[in-house]
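Sanity check

After download, print the first record. It should look like this:
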Amino acid sequence: MLQDPKRYTVTAALPYTNGPIHIGHLAGVYVPSDIYSRFLRLQGKDVAFICGSDEHGVAISMKAKKEGITPQQVIDKYHNIIKQSFEDFGISFDNYSRTSAKVHHETASEFFKKLYDEGKFIEEVTEQLYDEEAHQFLADRFVTGTCPKCGNEEAYGDQCEKCGSSLNATDLINPKSTITGSKPVLKETKHWFLPLDQYDAFLREWILEGHKNDWKPNVFGQVKSWLDDGLKPRAVTRDLDWGIPVPVEGAEGKVLYVWFDAPIGYISSTKEWAQREGKDWQPYWKSNDTKLVHFIGKDNIVFHCVIFPAMLKAEGSYILPDNVPANEFLNLEGNKLSTSKNWAVWLHEYLEDFPGKQDVLRYALTSNAPETKDNDFTWKDFQARNNNELVAIFGNFINRVVVLTNKYYNGVIPTPNEFTDVDEATLTEMRAYPAVIASSIERYRFREALGELMNLARLGNKYLADEEPWKMVKENPERVKTQMYVALQIAAALSVLSEPFLPFTAAKLKDILKLDDVPHAVQTMGIVDETLSFNDAERSSHKLSWNDIAVKHELIPANHQIGQAELLFAKIEDEEIQKQVDKLEATKTANNAANKKAEPQKETITFEDFAKMDIRTGTILEAKKMPKANKLLVLKVDTGIDVRTIVSGIAESFKPEDVIGKRVSVLVNLAPRKLRGVESQGMILMTENTDGKLVFINPDADGVNNGEMIS
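Expected structure tokens:
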């Protein structure tokens, strides 16, 4: 692990531009990387926070074919949506590029060409699946079939999403083309492979020995499993018409494999940023005093810890990542997030329903982050974290401090009198929080770090609750001046330490406290700075920093004018949450309807067989639960020919009072049968809806009397 790096290159996984961004992406990659980068900047570090849209590969082609548009139209549409979502949620990239950019095509081509010229690839002619109807080779995702490991009949040519196995398209049993539905044939084609097996010893020494103590166990374990299974050469080119053309002779109709091209996007995005800022990009990727950190989800671990490092090692001039703090998956209301099934909370839709509440979602996702295992997002938990933590703890403390300062002193911070032991202990504890929170962030424990930030807000609440300035103001108003001064120091500390996690809230709090109007050349612990006069430009460069909280004697000075109170957070009502739950339920119902398959036809019967059944219309007159039976209702039914008892297994779907008066269809000539001592004289006809709930087969038409025969 690199100690005291001169600069930081922080990358966030390139989002794939075949759909918008949802909360799983935010929780897994973009909020953690933003917290880390904002924290580094607050410490005055040299940071390049890099990302961009991943715009090549077969999924883009598939999306374009499905929507009847060009791949360029697909990537333009989703690049803009994704980029806007990041901006809306305060993800503070120094550069957000795209792999369709000219600088990226040039960078990726040069990277490939150098490895090609130096003989780092293996050139092989292999047999690949070919669609004779479409007249094209089939990339992995254009092939589905049965997984040879688990039997899933809908596995893709590169991976089985049911068992997680990595596959080759030729491994599939009964493969078929997703383009035409036909069975593909094997046809020879030439490709270039990176011989990963030649980098086995390097990867084992670098990761299994060098990073066994500082990489997350979920990352280390997955890499070790891959290495123990044995590395094999991996193709870096594909037969496809969308992507970066392979820049060598004899490679017509071939493009760089998207997982060779995409991580190079970090480098090309850094080049783009450096050129714009008048910087040299190379130290951020080639200097040994640079710390490189990749933030990714667990589905990208192998590419960032095995394949991309092998590429960088083969090229020879690049540094390797110091850490790859990958998160696990976030589920939604007990089910796996799915873009194709619309089982997601889309960021652009969230802001339509919860305008101005970006930080609430950032908070909920961070406090429930899937850092070492999969976690579940629920709307009830989201509501509870907002109401019980952000509103009741953080927001409550700030509101009390600002309201009381305005009430007692017209918003002017009072000059403190002598500090008591409680005051000193509180300020000492406050000054410890930057180091405590920093320690958690530097170990990529963002959930833990956020918990410590909230502990600082709790410290402020406890101080006010114990000191009770609203009571003390009548007995000893001079003492209250000190109490409010201390509480305001905690508020100022929160405005800085909350910024990585809650950037919009931090900005609002700084505005309430008018911290940008404070010239921060003030007394530090044991040292008095020279008195300086500040113009606006100088003020902006002397804002409170992370480390100031621990060493400054005074974060916000006496006689400073603050603003009026504004609520930082608002309570979220049950109705707002129910609306989101209902939206998901509607999605689930639609998915069930789309996926529900009719039962196969039963054995053929004759008309005479059907005619033997006497089905009549009827009305349920009475209903009660069968004692000691969860599923059974005892019904009295008017069949038009009599009133009879029928025992029906519908108690889990209906309450007795809900079915009284229901018009039903009854099989009346079914042989009687005793159920728990009660003789049932017929059967009520039912079916199921898409949710699996029982539904009556109703004779709804007006003028249909009980006893009418159904034929």
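If your output differs, re-run the checksum step. Summary of this record's structure: Confidence is low (pLDDT under 50) at residues 521-541.
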